[in-house]
Amino acid sequence: MATTVSDLKTRADEAVREIAAAADDAALEVARVRYLSRKDGLITAATKELATLAAADRPAYGQAVNEAKRRIEAALEGRQAALRSATIDRSLGESVDLTLPPRRVRLARMHPISRTIREITRVLATLGFEAVEGPEVEWDYYNFEALNIPRDHPARDKFNTLWIQSPLGDDPDRPMLLRTHTSPMQIRVMEQRQPPVRVVVPGRCYRFEATDATHESLFHQYEGLAIDEQLTMADLKGVLYSFARQLFGGERKVKFRPDYFPFTEPSAEIAFDCFVCDGAGVTNTGRCATCGGSGWIEAAGCGMVHPDALRRVGYDTSRYQGFAFGGGVERLAMLLTGTPDIRLFHENDMRYLESV
Ligand code: DAH
């Protein structure tokens, strides 16, 4: 007989000692495998040996195996419980300083540009304008051609365009770009809808520009478009008048100054009287910083939609006409939040963004 009853007892004594000394759960697991593993643990090996014994020896040996197994299992269970309660005791012993101030809760808030876009679309919704969005990667056709800015037109010079190269190869007749303004959506909307049309299009635009306090190569615009049977410049002025009052409050005045855009005729630039100095150009501390002392804040380009653009989308120009306006979201956000530098909006400095 390879293993006697007393050998078995000795091995079980060793096992119980080893288990009692196990320092942690990992050591305990090593011991459990060594003694109780079904594959090649001590008990399994001893059980296999049973078959090799003479019939007379089997009962005593079998009993010894059962006894060894019972002791090892009890030792494992006992050590496991001891380790667990030691862990609990240790963590109870740690002192918690209840006088520490709690960690600051950071509430999410909307980015000032998103807030301004919401405000613009909310105000224009009260005047019946539906907010729609369009693609930022755009065809030359919508960004320029359809807006009366053909390939050699000098108006292209003011839009420092970022062109897109397709990895599949470019069609020289259909150049692609990052839209330089939201005006291409005028054409897209008119292509898809019949008058009456009243939409506002907020969105990202791109220009290849040197960055300074009032320019960034990524910025946002809002575009308004209204087409109907009897619209005039007076309606345009009325809409922008209400827009200015709702956005800036008080008794805002608006004024048109003649301007030129290829896709509107006539074209104008709209200015609001300054909501800080009420148009005076000065405050008690001197020249008004918000309007630069002029008393006026230039806000957007606008005009009556050019008949060529209407014809291009198949509208009957003897029946329909309309107006459009478009301006910079960052500019309004700077005015509304008193932000002196456009770059503060996109630098992601939470100290600034949380303060406005
Ligand atoms: N898209 C023009 C720009 O970025 C601004 C503009 C001018 C928009 C006149 C209009 C408009 O809708 O009628 O400079």
Structural key phrases:
7-stranded mixed sheet; 38% helix; 19% strand; 3-stranded antiparallel sheet; 356 residues; binds 3,4-dihydroxyphenylalanine; alpha+beta
Strand order of the largest sheet: 1-5-6-12-11-8-7
Helix fraction by DSSP (H/I, runs of at least 4)? 25-40%
Main sheet? 7 strands, mixed
Helix/strand/pairing category? alpha+beta
What assembly state would you assign to the polypeptide chains in this entry?
single chain
> Ligands bound here?
3,4-dihydroxyphenylalanine
N-to-C terminal Cα separation, in Å? 88 Å
Radius of gyration: 40 Å
Tally of DSSP helical segments: 11
List low-confidence stretches: none
- Characterize the overall form: elongated
Strand content: 15-25%
| SSE topology string | HHHHHEEHEEHEEHEEEEEHEHH
Give a count of the beta strands, DSSP E runs of length 2 or more.
12
Overall average pLDDT = 92
